[in-house]
């Protein structure tokens, strides 16, 4: 049995023929082992080289990712440091201006106070001189002299109280001015921060715009492939605002209608797209308007009609296009059948019940609503301005009356009377205020 098996194996053992003598050489294990080992060694070396190259590229990618992360962190730190430095500089400058303004105001009030004191001293000197001249004639009027001295004391108290009130008011006004300046600078800083955020948003918007152009090209190819008889043309930049115009043609090439397409590839839905696309639809004379967007309104899952505009997800674009296109073709065929059979009254009726008349009425109503909103805003602004100016005028009148009263208390009858600030005018003014309120 073993001999037979050996003979059978020898009969099926692989062989090679010598190219010179054509002698048959058997490929035994001892002869093929070095070749197999050499082949295995070269294979393992190539595999190790590929593994090393993959590891090197992986390490390079990791280092590049770390470098990008470090650069981003450094930029954020620089922005924060620059904003903090700018904020501290602005605050320091405004604080310095406020201190200088307060010092100047206090100095001015001090000069006014000194002038008032000089006037009072001159009046006291004149009063003392008059008292000395009349001392011999009015010795029996000591009671009257005591009353005059009491009056002088009262005047001094009023002057002191008025000066203190003026100083307190000046400090309050200076503090309020400083607070307003600091608030204005804080608002400037916030505006700069909003500007930075707007620049970041515009950078992201640029990327989204590129993605939207890709979606627009995909939509054009999809429509051309599905409707080869229709005219699919992109809308030029700055012409309408939509992306694609589809001229629907019937089987015989007869124009059946226009579909206006607009693609959106953003993260959030905006209702403002609807009004804008309706305006584009009216300008282009399109029968149907569609918005293809990944972000849909909350109440729409796949596609739906919203305020006269069809809204659909990109995966539903083709089914919706098929349905709307067939509807336009059916309406066009019915219109062709009825042509030549309508009277003027029927034509007017079809115009009034058609798409163009509805679009024109919607445009008029939308513009009227916009004008009414603008008018309401202007009315509210003017009412606020009138109330503000009325308050300012009343404040000026009150301050003027108070200042005149203080001066009359100091100077007495030497202060000339101002007819416009007498009691009758003030009573009339208060009565008008009550009527206005």
Characterise this structure.
Among the domains are: 92-208, no CATH class; 227-360, no CATH class. The chain has eight helices and eight strands; from the N terminus they run αββααβββαβββαααα. The chain is elongated and about 170 Å long. The strands form two sheets. The chain has a six-stranded mixed beta sheet, sandwiched between helices. The protein has helices spanning 2-11, 29-133, 142-226, 272-284, 317-338, 344-352, 355-411, 423-436; strands at residues 15-17, 24-26, 231-234, 244-249, 255-264, 288-293, 303-306, 309-312. The N and C termini lie far apart (130 Å). By secondary structure, it is of the alpha/beta class.
Give short descriptive properties of this protein.
437 residues; six-stranded mixed β-sheet; 8 strands
Précis, in short:
The protein is α/β, with parallel strands linked by helices. The protein has helices spanning 2-11, 29-133, 142-226, 272-284, 317-338, 344-352, 355-411, 423-436; strands at residues 15-17, 24-26, 231-234, 244-249, 255-264, 288-293, 303-306, 309-312. Among the domains are: 92-208, no CATH class; 227-360, no CATH class.
Spatially, the strands of the biggest sheet line up as: 3-4-5-6-8-7
Low-confidence stretches: 1-11, 424-431
Would you report the number of β strands? 8
Helix content: over 70%
Mean pLDDT reading:
75
Output the structural class. Answer: alpha/beta
Overall morphology: elongated
Q: What is the element string, with H for helices and E for strands? A: HEEHHEEEHEEEHHHH
- Tally of DSSP helical segments: 8
Strand composition percent? 5-15%
Gyration radius over CA: 48 Å
Largest sheet: 6 strands, mixed
N-C termini distance: 130 Å
């Amino acid at each position: 049995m073993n001999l037979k098996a050996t003979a059978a194996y020898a009969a099926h053992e692989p062989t090679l023929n010598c190219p010179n003598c054509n002698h048959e050489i058997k490929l035994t294990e001892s002869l093929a082992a070095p070749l197999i080992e050499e082949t295995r060694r070269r294979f393992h070396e190539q595999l190790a080289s590929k593994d090393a190259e993959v590891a090197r590229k992986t390490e390079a990618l990791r280092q590049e990712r770390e470098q990008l992360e470090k650069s981003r962190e450094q930029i954020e730190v620089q922005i924060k440091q620059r904003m903090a430095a700018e904020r501290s500089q602005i605050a320091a400058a405004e604080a310095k201006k406020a201190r200088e303004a307060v010092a100047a105001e206090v100095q001015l009030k001090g000069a006014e106070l000194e002038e008032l004191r000089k006037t009072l001293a001159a009046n006291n000197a004149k009063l003392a001189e008059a008292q000395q001249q009349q001392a011999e004639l009015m010795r029996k009027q000591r009671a009257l002299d005591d009353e005059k001295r009491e009056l002088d004391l009262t005047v001094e108290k009023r002057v002191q109280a008025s000066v203190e009130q003026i100083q307190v008011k000046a400090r309050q006004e200076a503090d309020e001015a400083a607070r307003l300046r600091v608030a204005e600078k804080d608002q400037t800083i916030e505006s700069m921060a909003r500007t930075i955020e707007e620049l970041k948003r515009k950078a992201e918007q640029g990327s989204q715009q590129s993605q939207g152009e890709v979606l627009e090209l995909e939509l054009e190819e999809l429509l051309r492939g599905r409707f080869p008889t229709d005219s699919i043309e992109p809308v030029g930049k700055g012409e309408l605002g939509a992306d694609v115009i589809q001229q629907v043609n019937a089987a015989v090439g007869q124009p059946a209608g226009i579909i206006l397409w607009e693609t959106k590839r953003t993260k959030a839905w905006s209702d403002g797209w609807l009004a804008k696309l309706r305006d584009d639809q009216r300008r282009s004379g399109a029968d149907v308007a569609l918005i293809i967007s990944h972000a849909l309104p909350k109440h729409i899952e796949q596609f739906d009609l919203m305020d006269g505009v069809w809204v659909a997800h990109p995966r539903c674009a083709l089914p919706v296009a098929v349905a709307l296109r067939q509807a336009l073709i059916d309406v066009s065929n019915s219109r062709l059948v009825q042509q030549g059979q309508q009277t003027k009254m029927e034509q007017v009726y079809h115009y009034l019940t058609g798409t163009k008349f509805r679009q024109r009425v919607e445009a008029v109503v939308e513009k009227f609503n916009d004008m009414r909103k603008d008018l309401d805003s202007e009315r509210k602004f003017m009412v606020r301005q009138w109330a503000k100016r009325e308050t300012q005028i009343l404040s000026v009148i009150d301050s003027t009356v108070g200042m005149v009263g203080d001066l009359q208390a100091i100077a007495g009858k030497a202060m000339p009377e101002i007819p416009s600030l007498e009691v009758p005018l003030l009573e009339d003014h208060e009565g008008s205020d009550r009527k206005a309120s």
